[in-house]
Structure formats: structure tokens, C-alpha cells
Amino acid sequence: MHMINKLMVGVALAASVAAGSAHAATLSGDLTADNAFFAYISTSPSTLGTPLTSGIPPNWVTAYNFTSNSLANQTYYLNIEAINAGGPGGFIGSFTLTGPNFQFANGGQTLSTDTTNWFGTYNNSNSDTSASQSWVTPTGGVAEMTYVSGWGTPLASGALWIWPSDPSSSSAGLSCGTCTVDLQTVITY
Description:
A hairpin with a 2-residue loop joins strand 12 and strand 13. This protein has about 190 residues and is mainly β.
């Protein structure tokens, strides 16, 4: 009888693992920035998280893409550090979730940069593109960077170039010059 109980527990555990992997989800995306970016996935809004990708685009129409490892069944935060090394700055991205039960802040499984589903904040005046900065949890809004029309739209998704709208990040429609800003959106389970 004891052996049968162990066997039943083993079969139940194997079925549970198989069911969990059948519902595995991944995050993928295409993104770029003026002048550099670091993208992370985190389980906490106040922690930078695990690196997904980074880039220093040779020009701002070069998009970088990534696909994450499988996501566990919990809430995540897509955290972006965008670094501007002078003049106007902006960040643009388009993201997709595969697998059931996950959704972005807009309620769907696709999300592009926009002014309603992202938070942003000024981080610091450091424009070092060689490494990510400390993380400052974004709590403010973002604005569309309309003056970047000459950069084009490197993504076919209708994504907008965005930047935090707080006074330290943006002045008279132009970005901070040399600075790092932090951007965030949520992925719920």
C-alpha cells in the first residue's frame, strides 16, 4: 500500500510538471534607444532584475531583439534603462508574450511603447553607456518624443518614441542632454 501511494504521488508530480511546462510563457521584443539601453526582467518593481539584452545602436533605426527564458507563474516587470549621451533622447520598443495566462498593462499579449502603459523617471546625469546604472523605480509618466521624426520608426508595430516626462528628464520637449532614465511596464499572471 505504501509503495502505491509513492507511485501515485510520483505520477501526480510528473503530471503537474508537464502541465506547468505546457503553459510556459516567454517574453520577446524589439527595441532601440538614443543612445543606449539595458533591458531587464524582474519580479519586483524596485529591483533591476535579470538582463535580457542591451545595445548601443550605431543609428536609431537599428532594433535589437531578444527572447526570454520561460516565465514562472507570477507578476513581472520589464525594466529599461535608457541612456542619452547628448541632444534629444528616446526609447522605442514592441513586445510580445507567448503562452497563456500572462498579459501586459494594456490587457493584451502585445505591447508597444506608448504614453499610457509605461512609467518613467530620471535616474542620474551619468551618460556612461558601458554599464547599467543603479535602479530608480519609475513612478511618473512618459511623453511621446515627437521631435524624433527624423529618426524614423524602426518597428512596424506603431510604437512611439517615449521618454520620462518629469522635469529632470525632459525640458521644453527635449530630453535631459546627458542622463540615464528608467522606464517600466508590468506583466501580470
